[in-house]
Amino acid sequence: DGKISVTDIGHKLAKGEIEFADFMLEALLKFQYPNPYESGFLDWNTKPFINSLRLIKTVNQKCNEKGLKAKGISRLEFGIFALSMKTYNLVEKTADDILSFREQYEAISDDEIKDEFVKDFINSYLSGFKNPVDNVKEYTDNMIRYLRLTRYIYIRGKYSNTYIDLEPRRSTEIDAILEADKGIAKEFSEKEWRDYMGTYATYVLPFETVEK
């Protein structure tokens, strides 16, 4: 009806009852594609934040198995692979794609050739997306700002050699979430989705249950 109302979370933030970082963590844990308020994601089935955490963990595990340094995924890899992962069951394949891309990318010493390789790869790998080369950078920069607020990731390195890794001091919490939540989107009506996203503590953290 055109009215704007403050949600339960909004009231709690305004009163200082919850920290912004707590709100952001819960919002990202709950957010999914598809959802009733965004069109164009009907062929998606993912909770992007949860599956990004799972992707980083899987890449690190594969690096350990291969005797490589486990360092998370680079900003570039995050933009190409994590943000385009449409379904929860693509984590394993996407991790393999990242390591294959990384091997090819790191084998190129000439910066100009590297840049051309990246552009060609993005246009090919993300051929179904609009303006993929520009959007990879734009969406990556914005998303990392939000992810850092959750305190579940930390940034390795700096400038062009930046990697996004799991926060080791939160490993027990992260593992509990990944075990309890497979990153599969749920069905909601518009009202159910609005209430779910706008009400604090509707996502039950597995380590905050009575049993745990």
Strand tally is 3
Instruction: Work out the radius of gyration.
Output: 18 Å
Beta fraction: under 5%
Give the end-to-end Cα distance, rounded to a whole number of Å.
43 Å
> Mean pLDDT, as a whole number?
94
Spans of at least 5 consecutive residues whose pLDDT stays below 50 are none
Major sheet characteristics: 3 strands, antiparallel
Helix content: 40-55%
Q: Give the SSE order as H and E letters.
A: HHHEHHHHEEHH
Helix and strand content put the structural class at mainly alpha
Number of helices: 9
Main β-sheet, spatial strand arrangement: 1-3-2
Silhouette: globular
Describe this structure in words.
There is one protein chain. The protein is mainly α and 212 residues long. It contains nine helices and three strands; from the N terminus they run H-H-H-E-H-H-H-H-E-E-H-H.
Question: Layout of SSEs?
Answer:
Elements: H1 8-14, H2 20-30, H3 48-66, E1 73-74, H4 75-82, H5 91-106, H6 111-125, H7 132-149, E2 153-156, E3 163-166, H8 171-180, H9 190-198
Antiparallel strand pairs: 1-3, 2-3
Helix pairs in contact: 3-5, 4-7
Task: Characterize this entry briefly.
The chain has 212 residues and is mainly alpha-helical.
